[in-house]
Specification:
Elements (H helix, E strand, L loop, with lengths): L4 E5 L2 E3 L2 E2 L3 E5 L15 H4 L7 E5 L2 E3 L2 E2 L4 E4 L2 E5 L2 E3 L2 E2 L4 E4 L3 E5 L2 E3 L2 E2 L5 E3 L4 E6 L2 E3 L2 E2 L7 E4 L13 E4 L11 E2 L2 E2 L5 E2 L3 E5 L4
Parallel strand pairs: 1-5, 2-6, 2-24, 3-7, 4-8, 4-25, 5-9, 6-10, 7-11, 8-12, 9-13, 10-14, 12-16, 13-17, 14-18, 15-19, 16-20
Antiparallel strand pairs: 20-21, 22-23
């Protein structure tokens, strides 16, 4: 069986602990969660294999405390459309793209999230954001950086490590949130509260 694409919509993912609420990576990478169910990202980030394509539509990610990214795209293709991220803390931001991955983010709102790396959306050197359209951010913060929108890491930089950080900040284009469900301090969602993390992996033939 070859599994290469996943899409999901109308999810409300709240109050996760661990690496990511959604982790996209290649399933050929072997790893074992620790007894406290924390995934070691080292073998995943060390892989050069391509991952799968994942589409996230009309989703809400709120109040998560994560050691990497709210959505972590390690070498895959990610599309985020009409979604809301609020009050998350993640080392690499609400959307982290590494290992040559790429992403498209459209009509999505980021409110009161914080990160250690620059940017609410962090794009590692060698990875890319191909679409950044009609997105909105407010009250977001990044430790030691004024960039709270999209951060494209420079070649040779090490923003997720300890060797120094450099790159380019790209602003969000919208002055208001395009989501009809967004009411500022009041977050409106009709979706059920689902607490099961999503791990999206690309599987080879079986």
């Amino acid at each position: 069986m070859m599994c290469t694409d996943v899409s999901f919509a109308y999810h409300f993912r709240q109050s996760h602990l661990g690496v990511s609420a959604v982790l996209i990576h290649n399933a050929d990478v072997e790893f074992q969660p620790s007894p406290d169910r924390i995934i070691d990202m080292s073998p995943i980030l060390g892989s050069s294999a391509n991952a799968m394509s994942v589409e996230v539509t009309d989703c809400h990610f709120g109040y998560n405390k994560l050691s990497f990214g709210t959505i972590s795209n390690v070498g895959g293709t990610l599309t985020v459309y009409r979604s809301l991220f609020n009050d998350n803390f993640a080392k690499a931001g609400d959307v982290a793209v590494t290992n040559g991955g790429n992403c498209k983010v459209q009509e999505t709102c980021f409110d009161s999230s914080s990160s250690m790396a620059p940017g609410t959306i962090f794009i590692e050197s060698g990875s890319m954001i191909t679409v950044n359209t009609n997105n909105f951010g407010i009250n977001n913060s990044a430790t030691g950086s004024e960039c709270t929108a999209v951060f494209q890491e420079a070649v040779g930089a090490d923003c997720l490590g300890e060797l120094g950080c450099d790159g380019t900040c790209i602003d969000f284009q919208s002055n208001t949130c395009p989501l009809a469900s967004y009411k500022g301090e009041e977050i409106v969602s009709e979706s059920p509260n689902e607490r099961t993390p999503v791990v999206a992996s690309k599987f080879g033939d079986e």
